[in-house]
């Protein structure tokens, strides 16, 4: 191959149960993910690209980013797609190079795992570009090393994550869900939101319980019951995210007032997610939020959708 394009979805967390802080600084989670139809695209092409060359061992990479908040994405070796290319290239057993082009639609630092999505897309694209055919388990292990949410971006669908969120079990339940996402001004640092969650727990003297999957939420998914799912959505990081970004309480209240089946902060935020009863309901809800001026912009999306998928290749 000389060029491979991979499409990769954003995620929303249907349940984010956060356990105590571990000795390694991470938290044990029950993280119920759903992949939604808001996609970044990553194209991997052989040869030098427009971005400055970055090297790691025998791997040379470059990266350019366009689209939603592209100027907030790093163009150095901290870019998660570049890190993914380095990790795959280290297994090639020969010198390899890649020019990465990222087209972003997923908000940056928005709690929708855009960076993780780009890493998963780059893993799949580079594996295909260099003809490595790495086993799926190995790609999953590399993904988990890159970040807690990267394995889910490979898997897609609806799944429960345990450990840091990287140990995944797919949930089979049928159904299609309609979402509205309210994008906020600016982003929130995931590490800062977890730290704020710990601080709040310490301040209230409330010990963190061991995270458990919600039986009600799993039953709602099994029954593909959107109303019941809406009432079961929970996020332990929400109080911390709202404290760090106060306007979110107004955004959430507006979505509930306009008839969302469920409303919550997506992951570490600041994007807010609203579950609607149908595609029409989602469009109406998005319009109402736009008119109310309680967010920077809205997008509608459906879920679940597949994880990182090759959508184009040039021999
Ligand atoms: C909160 C969630 C919910 O899905 O995602 P976002 O909403 O930010 O996208 C995830 O837990 C984020 O996953 P991800 O963004 O991959 O995190 P990582 O790069 O692995 O870790 C970034 C930082 O988040 C904190 N962290 C992450 C995962 C975890 N189980 N416990 C943690 O405490 C740690 O402070 C860590 O240094
Ligand atoms: N390819 C990438 N796209 C977006 N952000 C990236 C990327 N690579 C690294 N980052 C860094 O990761 C941080 C978190 O971004 P992102 O994954 O979009 O948010 P979140 O963790 O809230 O879902 C960003 O602030 C940015 O500095």
From TrEMBL:
Keyword Transferase: yes
Ranges where the GHMP kinase N-terminal domain occurs: 79-157
Residue ranges of every copy of the GHMP kinase C-terminal domain listed in the record: 218-289
Chain sites annotated for binding ATP: 107-117
Function: Catalyzes the phosphorylation of the position 2 hydroxy group of 4-diphosphocytidyl-2C-methyl-D-erythritol.
Catalysed reaction, written as an equation: 4-CDP-2-C-methyl-D-erythritol + ATP = 4-CDP-2-C-methyl-D-erythritol 2-phosphate + ADP + H(+)
Pathway: Isoprenoid biosynthesis; isopentenyl diphosphate biosynthesis via DXP pathway; isopentenyl diphosphate from 1-deoxy-D-xylulose 5-phosphate: step 3/6
Species lineage: Bacteria, Bacillati, Actinomycetota, Actinomycetes, Streptosporangiales
A GO molecular-function descriptor: ATP binding
Top EC class, one word: transferase
SUPFAM superfamilies linked to this entry: GHMP Kinase, C-terminal domain, Ribosomal protein S5 domain 2-like
Entry EC no(s): 2.7.1.148
Residues forming the catalytic site: 11, 149
A GO biological-process term: terpenoid biosynthetic process
Highest taxon of source: Bacteria
Family of this protein: Belongs to the GHMP kinase family. IspE subfamily.
UniProt-recorded name of the protein: 4-diphosphocytidyl-2-C-methyl-D-erythritol kinase
Keyword vocabulary terms for this entry: ATP-binding, Isoprene biosynthesis, Kinase, Nucleotide-binding, Transferase
PANTHER family named in the record: 4-DIPHOSPHOCYTIDYL-2-C-METHYL-D-ERYTHRITOL KINASE, CHLOROPLASTIC
